[in-house]
Amino acid sequence: MKNKYRKTLAKYRLMVEGWPDAALDFSDEAAMIMHDWESLGGALPPGNNGFRIGKEKLDLQITMWRDEIAAGRLFVFELRADQSLALFQNEIESAWRAAFKMNQDVRHSLLT
Fold first, then answer.
1. What one-character DSSP code corresponds to residue 110?
2. What is the 8-class DSSP label of residue 90?
3. Phi then psi for 49, rounded to 5 degrees?
4. How many CA atoms within 13 Å lie on the side-chain side of 27?
5. Cβ proximity of 85 and 92 under 8 Å
6. If you write DSSP's letter for every residue of 15-48 in order, what string do you get?
């Protein structure tokens, strides 16, 4: 497993920090199952795989950022200024690009 993916796993784990269910699995085996699922199309990790839950929460958070940015209710500079989100700068930029594209598509559809 590459270091880049280990950083991704750290993000997933951070997303479930303070999760009320202490039965989440963050073992090396759980990490390998998650890696296989994401990179090789392996079997879906079980529901107690902490990395899977973290990925789901991160995906949801990115979607919410994108929608809020596109609607003009959230600004990228607000996210960039939040030091607790420093690890998620790539995801913030991705949400911004997606929101920008959504707005372009809406403007284009209004003009045609």
1. H
2. H
3. -75, 110
4. 8
5. yes
6. HTTT-S-TT-B-SHHHHHHHHIIIII--PPPPTT
pTM for the full model? 0.81
**Residue 70 amino acid letter:** A
Q: Are 52 and 27 in contact (CB under 8 A)?
A: no
pLDDT tens per residue, range 61-104: 999 998 998 888 988 889 889 888 888 888 888 888 888 787 66
- Residue 82, both tokens: 């939040």
Alpha-carbon torsion angle 19, 84, 73, 92, nearest 10 = -100
Q: What is the DSSP string of 46-82?
A: PTTBHHHHHHHHHHHHHHHHHHHHHTTSS-HHHHHH-
